[in-house]
Amino acid sequence: MKGLLIVISAPSGTGKTTLVNKLMKEIPTLEFSISCTTRKARPGEVEGKDYYFLSLENFEQKIENGELLEWAEVYGNFYGTPKDKVMEALQKGRDILLDIDTQGALQVKKNYPEAILIFILPPSLKELEYRLRKRATDDAETIEKRLIVARKEISLASKYDYMIVNDRIETAFEKLKSIITAERWKTERIKKHLNEVTSDTEILKLLES
Amino acid sequence: MKGLLIVISAPSGTGKTTLVNKLMKEIPTLEFSISCTTRKARPGEVEGKDYYFLSLENFEQKIENGELLEWAEVYGNFYGTPKDKVMEALQKGRDILLDIDTQGALQVKKNYPEAILIFILPPSLKELEYRLRKRATDDAETIEKRLIVARKEISLASKYDYMIVNDRIETAFEKLKSIITAERWKTERIKKHLNEVTSDTEILKLLES
Q: Which residues of B touch A190 (CB under 8 A)?
């Protein structure tokens, strides 16, 4: 059956990385999409594994040709999701996970309406701030900036298909997993792959009638 | 939060009753809807617990007034789902389970589009026939009739929101449970009850903006 394109967004500090890593571990059919970028490769980064490294010209070309499901500029570098690679993987029945910001997520939904958009909310903005401070990876100004961006992202959450509050990692994870399982059995999706739902030719004929 | 109206249909012999009983046990917020009927009460049946027993006139009145979410005639008796009772329970946050045939299910969807329709398929019609024979509760003619009805019901399965094959009871059950969990976190549903998703007034304001 065709795979699912799952898009997860969350403000920094919401616990998205933990949830995503748990998902990757528990759902063997799930794969990360590999982005392309104009950023220079860092030592140890492998072409086609960490990123597809492109020149600015090539990246521009891809945008113009509509070859990117979404793209964004971050601190002077461009990042994008190659459409052909994702579509190919989905056709092979692999589920693809995109971990991108709200702007990218809404671009994906526009270009591929079957995508499943899941937004992960922090229990509160106070809690988010607390988590960011506790993490101690950012200085006060960066945290302040992250909180401003978080507010903007949250204001777009209602455009997502699903919204989950990450108050406890285990319950949030169960919800995430349930969403992925449930989406697989939507008639809307199954309709195009009925022969993979049942091998009984008689049932198949009835379903298609 | 407003409850979910879950409608499950399956051909006789598909294992629906086992699945439904397991659901009722595992999901404490889930309740069976009590039908009304023109059938006479059998010894031990309690009004308002097993059924609401109505006269034919009262039943007709309810149909005319649009007070039934769905109704059907079975062997000369009428059965229906009272709309007011279901709506009241949903408003109180209880999830309501309806175990009805395809005709009824499609009536419910028409009258209450938020209803979640789940169809449970047998692995094959051969297997269904085998299960019906093994059950040994019906004679050959009844089994034959059930198989004819099963074909008709299956041909309407693609009008449901979800389709599950009951090849193994445990996996089918997990899918059912996932569907119910996932549906709770659909933005579409949550939008009307954002204050129950988060108690953080700042996040609430952002979501509503």
A: 163
Chain A environment of B173 (Cβ under 8 Å): none
**Superfamily covering domain B5-33+94-208:** P-loop containing nucleotide triphosphate hydrolases (3.40.50.300)
| Rounded percentage of chain A residues whose pLDDT exceeds 90 | 83
CB B162 within 8 A of CB A182: yes
A29 CA: distance to closest CA in chain B (Å): 17
pLDDT at A130: 92
A121: nearest CB among B123, B174, B203 = B203
Give me the pLDDT at residue B190, please. 87
Measured CA to CA in angstroms, residue B1 lies from B82, B94, B179, B193, B209 at distances of 21, 9, 17, 6, 20
Architecture label for domain A5-33+95-208: 3-Layer(aba) Sandwich (3.40)
Q: Is the pLDDT of residue A1 over 90?
A: no
Q: Which of B14, B27, B158, B204 to mutate to test the interface with A (most CBs of A within 10 A)?
A: B158
Nearest to B161 among A160, A186, A200 (CB): A186
| Among candidates A119, A155, A187 on the partner chain, residue whose Cβ is nearest the Cβ of B162 | A187
Residue A190 has pLDDT above 90, yes or no: no
Side chain identity, residue A199: S
For A64-77, letters b (16+ CB in 10 Å) and e give eeebbbbbbeeeee
CB–CB contact B154 A123 (8 Å)? no
Per residue in B26-73, pLDDT (tens digit) is 998 899 999 999 999 999 999 999 999 999 999 999 999 999 999 998
Instruction: Chain A: give the shortest CA distance to residue B84, in Å.
Output: 29
Decide: residue A199, CB within 10 A, 0-12 exposed, 13-18 middle, 19+ buried: exposed
Give the global pTM.
0.88
Indicate yes or no: CB of B200 within 8 angstroms of CB of A125.
yes
When CB atoms are compared, the residue of B177, B185, B191 closest to A164 is B185
Under-50 pLDDT residues of chain B:
none
Element at A122 (helix H, strand E): none
Phi then psi dihedrals of residue A120, to 5 deg: -105, 120
pLDDT tier for residue A194 given thresholds of 50, 70 and 90:
confident
ipTM, two decimals, is: 0.83
Which chain B residue has its CA at the smallest distance from A200's CA? Answer: B124
